[in-house]
Amino acid sequence: MPSYKISWAAPKSALEEAYAALSDLFDPPADAVSLVKQDTIAEDDASIWSLEAYFQEHPDIDAVNKMVADHGGLGDGQLEELPDIDWVAHALEGLGVVRCGRFVLYGVHDTDKLPDEADDIAIRIDANQAFGTGHHPTTAGCLTLLDRFAGWAPKSVLDLGCGSAVLAIAAAKLWGRDILASDIDETSVAIARENVQLNHAEGQVSLLGAAGFDHPDIAAAAPFGFVFANILAGPLAVLAPDMAAHIAKNGRVMLAGMMAEQEAGVLAAYEKAGFRQLNRLNHETWPVLLLVRQ
Ligand SMILES: C[S@@+](CC[C@H](N)C(=O)[O-])C[C@H]1O[C@@H](n2cnc3c(N)ncnc32)[C@H](O)[C@@H]1O
Fewer Cβ atoms within 10 A, N terminus or C terminus of the chain? Predict the structure, then answer.
């Protein structure tokens, strides 16, 4: 199946607002958006940068052009049909190191750019087909909120919808605990397994394929003291009663993947199932909730 790229070239400062808008606001979202320097010699302000948005389906070019005109005043982008290669991974290559609190996420291309702060927890996640390189606000939000819970290590932890396993690896490194991580998508589970090995966490993170809580190993490990669920609003709301059944009293669940306008509906489903809001990380599009089971 072909995919599509829309690109713009300009100094970095002229592209940043459109980059943020395409990453966070465009609906349906691009599969990947990248902002990369076209040459490596000039200083950032003197260089020409490329803003590239990738889509699996033919994008509505008029809607995209209107969005970038409204956010940063760019002219029309150039639409290209691309041959069938993994453009999502290509777009994420070299996107740079992401810092979320003490977590520092990097890909193989950025190994030499790692900062070296004493408290840093470095996690290598290469760009590929599993969600969770840290460049999406939901992943970054979960890591930022997790960073606040360094001194509090729950006994039994599940990363439900683990994608790349980035949250499971982060929690294993922060808390020094064994973590169960699951995903409905077998490709994600395979990539998560590679990431767990790359980060030397195979002794701590156990992976399995499962839809929701539907797996005997999940049932055996319950009740959980902490569950991460960065999925989407619909499945999050549907899973609320199962969350209550698998989380211990006073256990926590971190919810992400719902958009700001879906948050009230998801929260209502969890309140009905016996949860109370403890904390919330604000983001104009992708808030993160921390709830406790009463
Ligand atoms: C938005 S990604 C989050 C990945 C990663 N946890 C992160 O925070 O970056 C959501 C993941 O949940 C998985 N997923 C969606 N619905 C699921 C379900 N009902 N049960 C288990 N996994 C699910 C998807 O396959 C996908 O890998």
Answer: N
- Residue 207's domain is classified under what CATH number? 3.40.50.150
Percent of the chain with pLDDT over 70: 87
Same domain for 80 and 135: no
CB under 6 Å to ligand 1: residues? Answer: 131-132, 138-139, 142, 160-163, 166-167, 182-185, 188, 211-212, 230-231, 235, 257
pLDDT score, position 91: 45
Measured CA to CA, the distance from residue 153 to residue 104 in angstroms comes to 20
- Kindly write down the DSSP assignment for every residue of 12-50, as one continuous string: HHHHHHHHHHHHHT-SSPPSEEEEEES-SSS-TTTS-EE
Query: Quick check: pTM over 0.90?
Result: no
- What range defines the domain where residue 286 resides? 131-293
Closest to 289 in 3D by CA, of 263, 271, 268: 263
Could you report the per-residue pLDDT of 137-173, keeping only the tens digit for each?
Answer: 899 899 988 988 877 789 899 999 999 999 999 999 9
> Distance from the CA of 64 to the center of ligand 1, in angstroms?
27
